[in-house]
């Protein structure tokens, strides 16, 4: 399917193309002021100013003929609106008109409306902070963004749970959280685009990487001590942080206790042990030694053929065995991940995964919906049938199954995010038993404080405490590049932290 959007305002090109792509996951979408000769559907979108508002029109025509489909949206522009606010209203109106035309043509109703961003719950937090009532917020989400009532209710549950778990969520800008990236795995999964390198036969890279990681952590720790800035949470991700040896883990956590000030006041330390084939009794003892009680052990699926297909070289039995081993070693806050829509899986396989999860009952369950990420092996082979996935109706059904199962078993949703090219235009949701929520996931997703990324592929987000503006800095993804540049990466982050926290001090 080739869809072309004829639009004069090229500033809207990306947002409109993202909306059109929701209606056909294999569509090629283009946008521009002229026509595209090979387009099967052409949608002309225009926006005009009115007294006190704007009107957007979308007209969908098909190459094969037939009556055009027309849609119109009118939006009010508040008195005194800035140019940026007026542009936002124009963009929303154009998106809603385009959405209407495509929904009428396809019969597909998009549950998230015109919203294609990663963090929809930020809309609720923003309105909370501005004192807008819940009822007015619902109206905006429904009427302006076209989000359906089910998704609005999910957002509200999540925001309410986040504020119950972290009552001072809106006042943590004076602290930071740390993300520590360890870029090694036993193998790379077919759907993955994280910086993850096969650890086998790479001990030289591992040694060099760990040296740089230790030094970068010391440099950040020194800044924290000088600045008197506290740390709220620490998260070890990757890759798979338990791919390194027990001795290397022990040395890393010892350094953490030495380098990071106020470690006993850190609210949460998480280590992803997502690949069961990396977990050993020795590593679990290291985690317990350093009082790390929250880990992830991720089955993704309980169907062995699926694990083989996506390149996870562990067995279903190994997942269960390592979960039980972690319990024996005192791990009492374990997260597990499941993925909806893995190749070859439908509702029957997902129901089986939920039934197997019920036998273990982890403290939290994160349910991802598969996304075809641009650089993954799965996306590269999407067209040849190797990774055939479920259709939209089955994806929606499995999403509902996850919500029903978690509700029935006492889990509550506490964070949510979305991704480009996510199947069925659905979402990823973290569910947890009350009290077992990941604080880091909430802070990272809602962008309420700066996150300092340390290690390979780690991205830092610096949030201006006055304007809320976010700037980012990404460490190199490849171990060799990181080994050669960690020192400059640490200096760049410290310069950014100085700017952010000087601004915060000046605003007090």
TrEMBL record:
Q: Which residues form the Radical SAM core domain?
A: 170-407
Gene3D superfamilies (UniProt xref) = tm_1862 like domain (3.80.30.20)
Superkingdom of this entry's organism?
Bacteria
- Any single Gene Ontology cellular-component annotation: cytoplasm
An example molecular function term from Gene Ontology annotations: catalytic activity
InterPro entries linked: Coproporphyrinogen-III_oxidase, Elp3/MiaA/NifB-like_rSAM, HemZ, rSAM, rSAM_horseshoe, rSAM_sf
State any GO BP term from the record.
porphyrin-containing compound biosynthetic process
Q: What is this protein called?
A: Coproporphyrinogen dehydrogenase HemZ
Q: Which organism is it from?
A: Thermobacillus composti (strain DSM 18247 / JCM 13945 / KWC4)
């Amino acid at each position: 399917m080739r869809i072309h959007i004829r639009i004069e305002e090229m500033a809207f090109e990306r947002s409109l193309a993202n909306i059109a792509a929701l209606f056909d996951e294999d569509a090629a979408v283009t946008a521009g002021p002229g026509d595209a000769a090979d387009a099967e559907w052409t949608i002309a979108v225009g926006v005009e100013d009115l007294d006190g508002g704007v009107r957007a029109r979308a007209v969908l025509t098909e190459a094969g003929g037939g009556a055009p489909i027309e849609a119109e949206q009118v939006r009010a522009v508040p008195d005194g609106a800035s140019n940026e606010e007026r542009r936002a209203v124009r963009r929303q109106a154009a998106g809603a008109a385009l959405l209407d035309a495509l929904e009428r043509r396809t019969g597909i109703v998009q549950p998230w409306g015109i919203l294609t961003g990663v963090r929809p719950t930020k809309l609720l937090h923003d309105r909370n902070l501005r004192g807008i009532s819940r009822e007015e917020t619902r109206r905006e989400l429904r009427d302006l963004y076209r989000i359906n009532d089910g998704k609005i209710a999910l957002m509200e549950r999540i925001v309410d749970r986040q504020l119950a778990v972290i009552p001072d969520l809106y006042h943590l800008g004076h602290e930071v959280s740390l993300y520590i990236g360890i870029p090694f795995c036993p193998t790379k999964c077919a759907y993955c685009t994280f910086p993850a390198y096969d650890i086998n036969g790479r001990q030289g890279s591992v040694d060099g990487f760990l040296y740089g990681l230790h030094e970068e952590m010391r440099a950040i720790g020194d800044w924290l001590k000088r600045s008197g800035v506290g740390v709220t949470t620490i998260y070890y991700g990757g890759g798979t942080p338990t791919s390194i040896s027990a001795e290397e883990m022990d040395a890393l956590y010892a350094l953490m206790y030495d380098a990071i000030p106020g470690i006993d006041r850190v609210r949460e330390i998480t280590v992803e042990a997502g690949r069961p084939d990396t977990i050993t009794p020795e590593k679990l003892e290291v985690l317990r030694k350093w009082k790390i009680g929250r880990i992830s052990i991720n089955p993704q699926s309980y169907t062995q053929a699926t694990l083989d297909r996506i390149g996870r070289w562990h067995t279903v039995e190994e997942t269960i065995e390592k979960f039980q081993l972690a319990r024996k070693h005192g791990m009492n806050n374990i997260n597990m991940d499941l993925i909806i829509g893995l190749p070859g899986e439908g509702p029957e396989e997902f129901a089986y995964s939920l039934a197997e999860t019920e036998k273990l009952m982890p403290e939290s369950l994160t349910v991802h919906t598969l996304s075809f990420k641009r650089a993954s092996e799965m996306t590269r082979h999407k067209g040849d049938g190797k990774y055939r996935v479920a259709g939209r109706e089955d994806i929606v059904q499995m999403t509902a199954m996850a919500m029903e199962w978690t509700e029935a078993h006492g889990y509550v949703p506490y964070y949510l995010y979305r991704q480009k090219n996510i199947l069925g235009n659905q979402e990823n949701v973290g569910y947890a038993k009350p009290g077992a929520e990941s604080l880091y996931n909430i802070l990272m997703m809602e962008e309420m404080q700066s996150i300092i990324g340390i290690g390979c592929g780690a991205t830092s987000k610096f949030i201006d405490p006055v304007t809320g503006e976010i700037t980012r800095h990404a460490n190199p993804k490849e171990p060799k590049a990181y080994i050669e540049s960690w020192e400059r990466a640490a200096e760049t982050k410290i310069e950014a932290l100085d700017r952010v926290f000087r601004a915060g001090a000046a605003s007090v």
